[in-house]
Amino acid sequence: MRWLISILLTVAVFTISHSSSAQCSICTKTAQQLGEQPAKGMNSGILYLAFAPFAIVGFIGYRWWKNNKQ
To answer: I need a labelling partner for 4 at 20 to 30 A (CA). Which of 15, 25, 43, 57 fits?
Structure first.
């Protein structure tokens, strides 16, 4: 159980960190034209929107694992 929580926390930290590059090539070109601050905001927004599906899949996987363990 502890290793599962530590893996989830590690993935969450790497996903949410500002050093992550979450932009596709088109978004990168658009962000370069906007400037540094709007580009950081755009990157954070992409990471924020990407977190929800990962959280849902993680929750479903945890429930599946918990039910199969019994």
So the answer is: 43
On whether the CB atoms of residues 10 and 41 are closer than 8 A, the answer is no
- Note down pLDDT in tens along the chain; length 70 residues: 777 788 877 777 776 665 555 567 777 788 778 888 888 888 788 878 888 888 899 899 889 988 988 7
Q: Where are the domains of the chain?
A: 22-70
Model pTM greater than 0.70? Answer: no
Give the SS3 label for residue 18: coil
Alpha-carbon dihedral sign for residues 57, 59, 61, 67:
negative
